[in-house]
Amino acid sequence: MVQQSSYPIGLSGQVWGESEKAKWLKAQTIKRSYLQEVVAKIAPFAEHFQVDQYGALSYNPSEYPLFVVKSKQWSEDKPTVLVTGGVHGYETSGVQGAIRFLETKAKEYEDRFNILVAPCVSPWGYETINRWNPNAVDPNRSFYQDSPAEESAALMAYVEDLGIDITAHIDLHETTDTDNSEFRPALAARDAVEHSNWNIPDGFYLVGNTELPADDFQTAIIESVVKVTHIAPADDAGKLIGAPLSQFGVINYATKALGLCIGFSDSVYATTTEVYPDSPKVDDENCILAQVAAITGGLDYILPLSKPLT
Predict the structure, then answer these.
(1) Beta-carbon neighbour count of residue 53 at 10 Å?
(2) Which molecular-function annotation in GO is an example for this chain (predicted)?
(3) CATH number at residue 73
């Protein structure tokens, strides 16, 4: 018999059907405002950057418009950097870190790069503090053709329409204690599979692409972030979240095969940040600053690839 963690929805050994998903959705509640905490902060960027609405979620289009912020001085001669936040809406510093980068640092790089930032890919998840979307689908496992997650599909379609190559893609995430207390048990119940809980790393780490690890790029980001916050040590088995280290503070996943956000862009330089906001060593501001440091560390590393416009 299939074994799984106890969860209040569904029966052990049975994959969720529509009734279980509906019951799960009914249990979700709005806990914060996407329009107030995210959209209101994006609007002023239109003074200096180009703010594009690339869609709206069908769950409630007026409440969940989707935005990207991009350089006005767009040029085919400059490499393009994509920053994504809020693919998992509950991971707050990913969203606010993307916004803080636009507020404080992005202008310093726009003469060398095309800057493209999607601050909150999953706004319903942001409001309900959820990993999944309302259909109990994980957007960060859905970045592939005919995606079941409209959050993922909308971003991929927008980037494809730009007709450009993405040189670097930095996707801002968190690993939280609720990964073990809520989201992994829910996943086990939904799919009727066994999910053993892993040790939550205390500190910042990165997830690179197994097929194109860009080791020096990852090192540069770690060296930038360590000036702001602590890097997660490996566990007793020499791993982070069950994966072996490729270097201090870095593991690699098969990002494209898993449907992860950094996999769809086919970037030479790609990484997923993981901040640990539940650590007693950090606060909300420190987590946001760590995300900004990750972006700037990556951009500083690839600066030699770019050239200032004359």
Answers:
(1) 12
(2) metallocarboxypeptidase activity
(3) 3.40.630.10
- What are the pLDDT digits (tens) for 44-100? 999 999 999 999 999 999 999 999 999 999 999 999 999 999 999 999 999 999 999
Per the DSSP assignment, residues forming a β-bridge with 55 are: 66
CA distance 95 to 230: 20
Does 3 fall in a domain?
no
Indicate the number of domains in the chain: 1
Amino acid identity for residue 60 in this structure: N
pLDDT at 6: 79
User: Is residue 7 assigned to a domain?
Assistant: no
The DSSP bridge partners found for residue 65 are: 56
Q: Which residues contact 43 (CB under 8 A, 6 or more apart)?
A: 51
Does the residue 6 lie in any domain? no
Strand partners, 243: 240
Determine which helix (DSSP H) or strand (DSSP E) holds 23, and give its type and residue range.
helix 18-26
Asked whether 191 and 20 are in contact (CB, 8 A), the reply is no
